[in-house]
Write a structure and sequence with these properties.
The protein is mostly beta strands. Helix content is about 5%, strand content about 60%. It is built from one helix and eight strands, in the order αββββββββ. It has an eight-stranded antiparallel β-barrel with strand order 1-2-3-4-5-6-7-8.
Length: about 160
């Protein structure tokens, strides 16, 4: 995976992740936050105004350590702001998975750069994240020229099944 290197995204890529914590006790709602960078790796045209995008990203987060994330989003360009709906799968350092349903929108920041804001609702996972619940908000800058992206997310997660 190519790392984000444009000037706009580089600022986000150097965001420090403060307060990294260990695994949560069963049922406790704990902070869930991190930073990531990556790129759009696939785009499929569905209709003249909608596409299905795949984003491959990696970063560091509380409860996950180093992680990888794949987000699939159906993006509707007929709306203003441009909106999307899809799913995210986060893979923790030990291989456990976190699943989320995501909705979002984008806004222009400057020529060639948009901010994508996504709202994730955690719907479960595997391993220590089986039956996980919670939510997060993600904000990332994306180059329309290189398809690279970098940002951060913040929310909370509860793991009643651990």
């Amino acid at each position: 995976m190519k790392r984000f290197n444009s000037a706009a995204g580089l600022a986000l890529a150097v965001l420090a992740v403060l307060g990294l914590a260990g695994p949560a006790a069963a049922g406790d709602e704990v902070p869930f936050k991190g930073s990531f960078a990556g790129e759009r790796t696939e785009r499929t045209v569905l209709t003249p105004t909608t596409v299905l995008d795949r984003w491959d990203m990696a970063g560091t987060a509380t409860q996950l350590g180093k992680f990888e994330m794949v987000t699939w989003a159906e993006v509707d360009f007929s709306t203003l702001p441009v909106t999307g709906v899809g799913t995210a799968t986060l893979v923790a350092a030990n291989g456990d998975l976190v699943y989320a349903d995501v909705t979002g929108h984008s806004e222009f920041v400057e020529p060639g750069v948009v901010r994508i804001i996504e709202y994730g609702v955690i719907t479960g996972g595997t391993g220590r994240f089986a039956d996980a619940t919670g939510s997060y908000t993600s904000s990332r800058l994306t180059s329309l020229i290189t398809n690279e992206t970098a940002g951060s997310f913040e929310g909370s997660i509860s793991t009643p099944g651990s």
